[in-house]
Design goal:
Blueprint lengths: L7 E2 L6 E2 L2 H6 L1 E2 L8 E2 L2 H6 L3 E2 L5 E2 L34
Antiparallel strand pairs: 1-2, 3-4, 5-6
The chain binds zinc ion.
Length: 92
């Protein structure tokens, strides 16, 4: 799998995400109570997330048509200690 731009792979659940926003959306629970975890596939789908034909989770089905949501507003991504740190990203 080639990772470009904001595309990343979660070190926790090994799923691929099309953007930091999508990655962030699949994380749930409280940092402070040690409850931070990944959503499973059913939970991601329940949130409206879909996996694109290229195998990357995206935040909304409207982004399916060859677009991605990586260029939406820049968001700070929280670091999940229990997820091995930052999502895997290529060195720019
Ligand atoms: Zn995950």
């Amino acid at each position: 799998m080639r990772l470009t731009g904001q595309r990343n792979q979660c070190r926790g659940c090994k799923e691929y995400f099309n953007s930091n926003k999508a990655f962030d959306k699949h994380r749930t629970g409280s940092f402070h109570h040690g409850e931070r975890r990944c959503l499973n596939v059913q939970e991601m789908e329940a949130k409206g997330m879909v996996k694109s034909s290229s195998g990357f989770w995206i935040t909304e089905p409207r982004l399916m048509n060859g677009q991605d949501d990586a260029n939406d507003e820049t968001e700070e991504i929280e670091i999940d200690e229990d997820c091995g740190g930052e999502p895997t990203r290529p060195v720019v």
